[in-house]
Amino acid sequence: MAFSGRRHDLGLCVLLLWILTPFFQGAVEIVCPNAAYLDSTVNLTCIGTGRTHSFIQPKGGVVTTCNMNSSQCLPAAMVTIHNSSYSVLTVPMVNLSQAGWWECSVGDIVSRCLLTVAKIPSCTLLNYRSTPETTVRVQYYYCSESIELHLKFGSLTRLLLNTTRTNTTVDIWETTVNVPTSFEEKMLIYVCGNTTLETACRVMEETAPSNRTGIAVIISSVVGGIVIVTVIITLLILLMKSKRVERPEANTVTYAPESIYDVAGQTNDTARDVNKPSACYDNILNARYGRFPDESSVYDIASS
Fold first, then answer.
1. CATH, domain range 22-115
2. Which tens digit of pLDDT belongs to each residue from 65-121?
3. What stretch of H or E contains 227?
4. Contact 55, 44 (CB under 8 A)
């Protein structure tokens, strides 16, 4: 009976040992920071007792597996092994693909943590002199999780943006609010996932956008009017030239007068005096019809 009792106790011990083996190995945990910033360095810590530590990235695939006894990792990576149960993976340049759930595997036990990737925005407040409103301009930000934007002035906070959309990249975002001028310091509260950051807003004084828009409209109207007038004048000139080319020229017919008194057939080139032909004109007619002038005519021509 005693022997039978020992066998029963031994079986119970084996069963308990099999059930509690994972607990004897120790709990596994991977620790991620609250947020990692683009192009910066981030450390991921894996804690667990086991022969190997494996780091698995969000997109799938093992980054490296480290032998905790020999302190060697394959493939080679920036891993610091402090002891047999503590390893730290360093990511030198954080990019967008590294946002998400990272895993650390110790034997058959896997632990996960969420790495939020963010880019801190810049904030500018545009105060227009002729209007009481202020334009809040937020530029160049990214968040792999949901985003909230708040404007803080004094003890007051105003919500600007709240979106559950993830993996948001924004170059510029603007909104218009009424901000009391009594508060000198104004801060932008940037909430990315579970991470909250504050950044100071730069204040700029500018002319009202309506004035700039009106001036632009006036300049555009003047330029447009000049272009239209120029086109119309050019078309009129071309039309007048085309009509001048198409108009037939008047035919000039020259008739040779039979006598010095036949002035109806004369042309502008030969007519001197309609009512009183000169001696020069008589000599021209005589030369044309073969009659030579006498000396007195020549003398008259010379004297005339």
1. 2.60.40.10
2. 999 999 999 999 999 999 999 999 999 999 999 999 999 999 889 999 999 999 999
3. helix 209-246
4. yes
